[in-house]
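Thread title: Can someone regenerate the structure for this chain?

I was given the following input by a collaborator and told the matching C-alpha cells would be attached. They weren't. Posting the sequence so someone can regenerate them.
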Amino acid sequence: MDLFLAAVGLAPLLGIFMVGLWNRPTYQFFPLALFAAGMLAWRALNQMSPPLASGPLGLTRLLILIAGSVYLAANILWSPWLCYVSFILGLLAVLWSLGGQPLLRVLAPACLMLLAILPFPGNLDQNLTLGLRSLAVSHSSALLDFLHVNHVQDGNTLLLPGKSLLVEEACSGVNSFFLCNAFCLFWVLWQRRSLAWLLLAWPAVSLFVILGNVLRITVGAAAFYYWQMNLLSGWPHETFGLVLVLAYTGLILSLDQFMVFLTQSVRHVAPAKEKTTWLAPAALLPVPRSGSILGFKLAGPILAAVGLGVLAVHLHSSRGPALGSFARLNRQELKLSLPTSLAGWQRINSDAGDKSLVATLGVHSLIWRFQREGMESVVVAVDYPLDGFHNVKICYSGNGWQILAEDELLIPRSRESLNAFKLTMEKSIKRAVVYHSVVDGTGRWLSAPKLLQSRLSSTMVSSIETGYRIQLITGGYKAVPATDSAALEGLFFQARQTLVQQLVNQLGKATAK
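Best answer:
Regenerated them for you:
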C-alpha cells in the first residue's frame, strides 16, 4: 500500500516527464528503453536464489531521505526532470531495503537502462544535437564539393540551384545517434560485457551514425542536384532513415562479435550458460527482513500528499488552456491581424516575410512584415501552441545562428521585467536581432526558467499552460545600430499588445462555446 501511494504521488510529474520526452524526437525511443530495462530486470530476478536479506536499515532511510528531498525540490520547482531523478533514487532505496547489495548489484543493468532516457543536465543534450547537426552538414558540404555539386552552406542549410535544403534534427541523424547508443548500451548489458567493452563500443557506434548521416545528407543533396529527386523529405526520407537504423543495428551486433573474436585468445572458455526458468513475477521478489519496512512507513503517504497537493495548486493557478487542450488547439487557428500603420512603421503585406530568417516551432504561425524609412524591414510573427515557455534561441541555434547575447528587457528605473527577451545573433556574414515574449491564453506572461532551473536542464521545468509566442525579427548584412533599438522595441511592444488583446478575446469566446 505504501508503494502504491508513493507511485500515486510520483505519477503527475512522471507523466509530464514522459510527455516531454515524446515531444522531443531525440528521446522518442524511451518506450523501447523502458521495455529493455524490464527485460534485464526479469532475467536478473529469474537467475537469483531468493530469499535475500535486506540491507542495513540506516542506509535505507538515508536513501529515502535523499530521494524525498529531491522529490520535494521537484515539486517546488515543478520539475519533471528532478522527479525522474527522485524516482531512480527511490527505486534504489526499495531495492536496497528488499535485497541489499546482492539485489542492487544484479538489477544495476536495468537501472542503467532507465538512466538512458534521462536528458543531460545543463542543456548538454541540446548542445550535442546542435554540434552533431553542424558536423554532419559541414562534412556533407565537403563531400558535395568533391562530387562537383554547386552549393553554398549557410549554417545548417545547403543552398542548391533552385532548392534550399534545411538540415533538421532528423536529417542530421541526431535521433538515430541517441537511439543507437541506447541500443548499444542494452546489448552490452544483455550480453554481460565488461565496462571496458562498453567504453570501446560507444565511440565506434557514434562514428557509425555520424558517417551514415553524412552519407544521407550528401546523397540527398546530390540526388536533387543531378536528378531532381527529393530524398530528404516525405516517405523517401523516412525509408532512408529506417534503412540506416537497420544498418547501424547490424553494425553494432557485428562489432560485438568482432570484439569477441579479438578477445577469445586471451579468455578462458566460458562455462555453459545456466538455463533460465521463467517464473511468475510474484515468485521473483525477495522476502524483506522484518523491520526493514519501517523506512517506508511514512514515505508513501507523504509522497502522495505532496504530489497530489502540488498538482491541485498548479491546476487551480493555471488559468490558461492546459496540456489536455492541445488536441483542440492544434486544430484551432486564430484570426489575428495587425494594422497597416503601427508605431511609425508601415505594414508591407500580411502573412508574408523572410521565412528563411524566422524560426518557428508552433503548429500554427502567422507572419507580417513592416518597413520604416531608413531602416531594414522587420518581421512580426506569432507561433502557437507551445508547451509553456519555449526560448526561441533554441530554434535559431538549430538553424545555424550563433547567439552573441541574450538580454531580458527591463524598465530602466524600477528594473521591473517587461517579460520580453532580446537575442543578438550572427550567421556567417549575416546579423540579426530578435525580440520575443510568451503569453498564456488569459494574457498572463510566461517567463523563462530561472538560474537553478536553466542550469539543471532545459526540460527540467514544465508548464501546464499553453504558450503563445510573439516575436520580432530584423536582420541583414550589418549589425543593427543602437539608435534603431528604440524604434524596434516600440514596434514590438505595440504589436505585442495588439496581438495579445485579440488572442485573449478569441480564446475566451472559444472557451465559452
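The chain has 15 helices and twelve strands.
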